[in-house]
């Protein structure tokens, strides 16, 4: 069998495109309606997706109200309360929740993911993030946000504490012998006693070892510190490379770091975000894509465009072309990409603003065959191990993907027809971690 | 219609009796098996229970390992991950989760309960507790536990911050006008900006106002500070009075405090814990009760008995009667109750240890008619507004209650045949809180 694509669905909890809720046939309240989310999760499972991946924010997005008021992602469910509910209405779909190491306690985080893993029969994943948003800090009693390196040091330790707590009990600690009345074997209980400058956590965890040993560890950092912590600890990496060449560089770098640390390359799946718009013809797909952007409010779009260019462009003629913009200290790559788009597709400032304001990362727009070609190329050329797919609008964009792209990938032998296993780990082909305190039982 | 009983099911997440898991026909792993819990919740809903009530601990129970190893409650699900999963498989049952104000952040707690309330369509309740367990403190970086009054001051403020965050958005803030692209009305968003010695929380919450306005506020404190905070804020009070006379005193005291604060007596339901063993005859019920105690391990029982008496009784003959015990500084009420039980029922030390080690609060043992009589008496004499029922073992004890006691209560007009409303508040007959920052929309 050829190498297999891994597909996560990046739901936040619905789609990332800021105009999606206005698209004809979309559910404007999808972001906050459990019945809809249940339907989406069940569709993903029918499509044999590896996982439902949920982002998180610990504050209302930091944006002027006049731009923010157009956003459907301003409020949404909390991931660790939504995913258990989705666990109860699905059977095989993985459930990856984002939880921050910056403003929470390791004991709480360890418990919640262990609990989700038991409830779902081994389908939990933890997207371990640090929180840089200064507005989030203000919701947790801090006037200043925590500095980058300090956040990463804390995150690395947080990981050690959480995984140590997950290992509190041997896998076979619970005997439940009704005859003798012995519920567990005290020899198979470990007290962590972790102490450092950042954390003092005694343990043990009051939850049995997770079904998967540990829930799958997911990360998204792309900085030097982020790549290193991923190489040390991550099993799935969510990335944002827009070009295959960049993807290949990132892939080689992080997998290389893993090997240096003695980890097998296969034990991490690198999954870039991909915004996928499928049509029966290329023209239909391009039309959907363009139409979607018309639903991005100009005020939101122009703010995003100004940020991307590092230059206030709100004074220019919305229906004219993008003039020469002086060099600024904005990211050159981002700036260059915007300028290239404007030239290639002959976009007006309004169209450019709406595109940037809607979504501006890697996108695949075309027929199922074209999309499968593109995905296959990334896989074959070691640009990624699969993708975190984002849908243009719900439910239509998701239904189209499952009905059109998935069968094409299956036909090529690139994607499963049935789930391989019962747990997220088994489906992703990841090993079950040994308990560091207790040898495996044979 | 006569005054109605309110019935919660006190699940932790199963039963409190420490011998329950060994009872013939019981599920030894019920405490940690989602399929079982789903069945229990659906049975409770069929019985028209008001709510599934889930306790919580932030540490492995503080008990010597030799006693602890017999306990089925040593590990269990985390409430705020279990209850969303149960929400997805039930339609009307209330879902009350315990969450501590001592070791968590108000922003997290506000989000999770708001999220549960949306997921469940308005069925969430928050059992607001303070955590005194010193072992819990050690899991959250504190070497000493937080002192009682300080815990209550923090809890009171925690409540203000959480409810303030729930009121971040007016009920009609989300317009979702696809035509104009306005998702919400910025005039209907309130930034809390709470600042005190204990908390600094900016807000707004990134979740829409809960379906119920606020999830139902539940409390269990019985100290002076606990009663006062309950009178100020609680809508359901979980109590542990064993005798009707004590129940009546507590009821009069707390409802009196409410009235002094200008709150209507009806806006709080006082529900003592009641351990209910039902049989087709009294003899059968008594036999079940006695048999259940035989499954309590002697080592656990004798430790609990020694604590209740304030005297180490582990050296006495297990099969002899309880000798005279010198006065100690243990609680006199608890001590006296134990001595009375021993005399009344002619119990040996072993039997007494197993009873105390199994469960030692208010119990109702008998036929459905006898149990209904007892419940009715508490209700009519203002000893309570109903009960938090605890089942002797699962699933049998729960099935018996729903099949035998519920119909008897319904026949007397004391308990609903159908749910009155869609939300927990509606079913409990509690008013929906006004948003303190936005006038109600008419």
TrEMBL record, chains A, B:
Belongs to the NtaA/SnaA/DszA monooxygenase family. Pfam families: Bac_luciferase. This is Nitrilotriacetate monooxygenase component A. Keywords: Flavoprotein, FMN, Monooxygenase, Oxidoreductase. Residues 21-383 form the Luciferase-like domain. The gene is ntaA_1. The keyword Oxidoreductase applies. Its EC number is 1.14.14.10. PANTHER family: ALKANESULFONATE MONOOXYGENASE-RELATED, C2H2 FINGER DOMAIN TRANSCRIPTION FACTOR (EUROFUNG)-RELATED. InterPro entries: Diverse_substr_monoxygenases, Luciferase-like_dom, Luciferase-like_sf, NTA_MOA. GO terms for molecular function: nitrilotriacetate monooxygenase activity.
